[in-house]
Description:
- The chain has helices at 31-39, 65-69, 83-95, 105-108, 114-121, and strands at 12-16, 44-47, 59-62, 75-77, 111-112.
- By secondary structure, it is of the alpha+beta class.
- A five-stranded mixed sheet has the order 2-1-3-4-5.
Amino acid sequence: MSAIPAGGVPCRVVVCRDCCCGTGKVPGVDHAAQTERLREAAPVRVSECLDVCDQANVIVVQPSAAGRAAGARPVWLGLVNDPAATEDIVSWVREGGPGVAPLPDILDLYAFSPLAKRRAGSS
């Protein structure tokens, strides 16, 4: 069951499912089961390529209304290829996600900044 803040919009999750993420290029992951498990905790939007293929499978956790009011920004998580990592994301989202609940230390290992990667790649 989703944790929906009283009077507010809950966290939302975006999963990349295109050229690398969600495909056989990332073997050993049940991509459909991962998406459905995330849907049990929050609304999920399936996106085309988010242009960070070296981080496949990418999941972006967008803050709830309360999280945005607290100044939170979306949290990008890459290399989410283990069911335990998916469970850690589900737990964090149910606790409120960005701006409401602190990012668990274990998820800090998956967090990255897509802007930093793009700036580093541009000359």
